[in-house]
Specification:
Largest sheet: none
Order of helices and strands: HHHHHHHHHH
Helix content: over 70%
Strand content: under 5%
Number of domains: 1
């Protein structure tokens, strides 16, 4: 449940911040009459995201088991790729996001109401589609029951509250550090979703090695125990992964997390150059030519 709460909080907060920046800029520049088209664009983006999530859930329910596993595994890989790109993009551009959005909003205001609706729709819709896809795969990876979905809804609700507090000026946090820490945790969650997707593709017989278990600690960590449920809900932990699952999990998690936290960059940064010795003072004696 925690991992799904984190997804809802992280993804929802990005969308909330985008909306807050757009609203604040319209109010500050004396364009409060343009808030209607802005909210229309936000509403359309939210509706598209919900429809996309519903299509993923109900559109695959009538397929055969093998087809469901093949589609689910493929979409797991796609969602992990999108989330990985998103956390790196947000880390790089978070401090410049406000000026970029304001520039797009100025251009939209100059073009008219339709452009404003489109700008709000695109700014929020991208976040919404990524969230729908990743939430769908993460909820399925965490298992059946209402817990994962409740976690997502609580996370989104928290993000809306935080966004409102930011807008009102009642809450100030270091967003750069917030997105760095939550991004690192999201990479861990994504590694579990990726491993789950690989297992789906093995069950669909698209990948080999379904019966080749790397280890089996089911007796020590029963899936139906409270701690087994906690590990699965938090890290998508599986007590009996295949060798391919374990290998893909490790191959993704370690380099991605190190790159995200900047470990390689710090290691490769050159040491500061030693100060150059001061030039010797010029000789006071002069030479004469013959």
């Amino acid at each position: 449940m925690f991992s799904n709460y984190l997804i809802g909080l992280r993804e929802g907060l990005e969308a909330s911040l985008v909306v807050c920046i757009l609203i604040a800029y319209l109010v500050k520049t004396g364009n409060k009459d343009k808030l209607g088209p802005l909210w229309l664009g936000v509403g359309l983006a939210a509706a598209l995201s919900l429809a996309f999530g519903a299509g993923l859930e109900f559109g695959t329910s009538e397929l055969t088991f093998q087809a469901q596993e093949a589609i689910g595994g493929s979409l797991s890989i796609v969602s992990v790729a999108l989330v990985t790109w998103m956390v790196f993009w947000m880390k790089r551009t978070a401090r410049h996001m406000k000026s970029e959005l304001q520039g797009k909003l100025d251009a939209a205001l100059a073009m008219g109401t339709g452009a404003l609706v489109t700008t709000a729709f695109l700014a929020v819709g991208r976040e919404g589609l990524e969230t729908s896809l990743f939430v769908w795969r993460s909820v399925h990876a965490a298992g059946d029951g209402a817990g994962p979905l409740v976690g997502v809804l609580l996370g989104i609700g928290s993000s809306i509250l935080l966004g409102w507090l930011f807008y009102r000026g009642a809450l100030k946090i270091n967003l750069s550090k917030f997105f760095t820490w939550t991004g690192g945790m999201l990479v861990v969650v994504a590694a579990g979703v990726l491993a789950y997707g690989v297992h789906d593709l093995q069950e669909a017989e698209f990948l080999p090695g379904l019966k080749n278990k790397a280890f089996d600690v089911t007796s020590a960590v029963p899936p139906d125990s409270w701690y087994g449920t906690l590990l699965k809900g938090t890290f998508n932990f599986q007590p009996d992964p295949t060798w391919l699952q374990a290998g893909v999990w490790l191959a993704y998690l370690v380099p991605t997390l190190l790159l995200f936290l900047g470990v390689f960059a710090r290691t490769a940064s050159p040491a500061p150059a030693a100060a150059a010795p001061a030039p010797a003072p010029a000789s006071s004696e002069s030479t004469s030519g013959s």
